Design the sequence.
């Protein structure tokens, strides 16, 4: 069987986090095996936004040109008020590209996932499906996973990239996903669809409203419009199990502009994504087992950094492996300690900022007006909100940028 040669690293989960990490480690010359529970590798959902802190890594991986050919490089990011349609603020993404040296891309999730899958195949990652990991154990020099059919597999290190409902996370903390009571509907239509003709496909736009927001952007070289509707579910707030249903979707957007409401019939109405995150966790390492991606830090998606953090995790781990790679193999204790010294602190900031952004977006009444007034006077070329995210992916804690404490943001959220 394929299991006879022990890999250097086992990766549990073949999502964007698991595959990008497999590529990062295989590129360092390691023998890597991915264990995926599903019967096929794939991604559900629609678009994903890749900010410069991600495209910088794709460039280092030699994958940026491929990603650009699959995606769209929008020119502007715009925030509008969903109730009256007024433009509140914007970012010039071409200027941003000059600032950070790398583009802002939007790409179909399945295209990004498939790109990493091809990259893994090129560097000889072993990619196994129908591998349901149910247990973990570790010694000082190796880790073991147990599969649902009773088999076990060993390696020098196990990276658990098993997503929001991670089994491995239980080794470190006894917590549960935190429900935000918000739910997302997604959908795409082709560019020649009447709805897409009303939309500027070169922009990423978010319409923010009381208890709801709507995002749209173009995908696949502008051949497709991606739309995402997100709202707070009254049934979730009332503690009902059956929450986030399509009737709630329509009701949540009843007070928004005609343009926002016109997209509702074109959503996929038979599936929806309830939004959960978890409390930040400051230690992701248990012996030779490390958490990565949503298993370690599932965020609310408001600053669009979930998959990016997972990709950054894998790249940072690869950098630490590169530094500690001797003739006799990798100093895994050193590499894992280096990873654990920098990533949890960064991701904690992203998780808490994501929650704060959600609150800011969803304000109603007078706080909404105060927010709008502050956003309207914001300088379009002021990057202080995003410098700490986009300017660098720190490999060592001392390189982590100072975080801008957003005074206007705090004023608006508490107003
Ligand atoms: P997952 O994608 O959950 O992958 C986990 C994998 O592990 C799966 O393949 C699963 O089958 C497998 N698995 C699970 N358990 C086991 C087991 N026991 N044994 C073996 N395999 C197992 N992020 C961005 O960066 N930008 C965005 O614009 C963005 N927009 C978003 C919009 C929405 C509406 C949502 C919901 C999320 C968004 N995100 C975005 C977040 C992003 O989707 C996630 O953070 C990211 O996909 C997490 O990747 P992952 O590989 O860590 O986990």
Sequence:
């Amino acid at each position: 069987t394929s299991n006879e040669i022990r890999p250097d690293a086992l990766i549990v989960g073949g999502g964007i986090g698991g595959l990008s990490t497999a590529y990062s480690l295989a590129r360092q010359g390691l023998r890597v095996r991915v264990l995926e529970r599903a019967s096929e590798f794939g991604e559900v959902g629609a678009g994903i936004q890749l900010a410069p802190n991600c495209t910088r890594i794709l460039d280092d991986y030699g994958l940026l040109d491929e990603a650009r050919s699959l995606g769209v490089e929008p020119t502007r990011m715009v925030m509008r008020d969903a109730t009256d349609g007024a433009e509140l603020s914007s970012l010039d993404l071409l200027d941003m590209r000059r600032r950070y040296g790398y583009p802002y891309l939007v790409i179909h999730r399945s295209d990004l996932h498939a790109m990493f899958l091809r990259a893994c195949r090129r560097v000889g990652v072993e990619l196994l499906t129908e591998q349901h990991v149910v247990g973990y154990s570790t010694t000082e020099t190796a880790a073991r996973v147990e599969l649902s059919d009773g088999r076990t597999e060993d390696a020098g290190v196990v990276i658990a990239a098993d997503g929001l409902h991670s089994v491995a996370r239980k080794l470190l903390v006894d917590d549960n996903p935190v429900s935000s009571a918000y739910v997302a509907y997604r959908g795409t239509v082709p560019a020649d669809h009447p709805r897409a003709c009303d939309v500027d496909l070169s922009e990423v736009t978010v319409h923010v409203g009381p208890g709801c927001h709507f995002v749209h952007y173009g995908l696949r070289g502008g051949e497709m419009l991606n739309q995402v509707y997100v709202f707070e579910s009254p049934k979730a707030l009332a503690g009902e199990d059956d929450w986030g249903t399509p009737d709630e979707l329509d009701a949540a957007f009843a007070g928004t502009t005609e343009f926002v409401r016109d997209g509702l019939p074109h959503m996929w109405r038979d599936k929806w994504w309830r939004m959960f995150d978890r409390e930040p966790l400051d230690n992701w390492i248990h012996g030779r087992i490390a958490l990565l991606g949503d298993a370690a830090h599932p965020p609310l998606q408001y600053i669009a950094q979930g998959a990016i953090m997972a990709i950054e995790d894998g790249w940072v781990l690869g950098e630490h492996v590169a530094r500690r790679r001797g003739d006799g193999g990798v100093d895994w204790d050193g590499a894992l300690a280096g990873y654990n010294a920098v990533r949890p602190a960064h991701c904690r900031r992203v998780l808490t900022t994501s929650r704060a952004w959600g609150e800011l977006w969803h304000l109603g009444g007078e706080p909404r007006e105060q927010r709008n007034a502050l956003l309207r006077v914001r300088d379009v070329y002021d990057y202080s909100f995003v410098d700490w995210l986009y300017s660098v992916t720190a490999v060592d804690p001392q390189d982590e940028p100072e975080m801008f404490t957003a005074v206007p943001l705090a004023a608006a959220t508490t107003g």
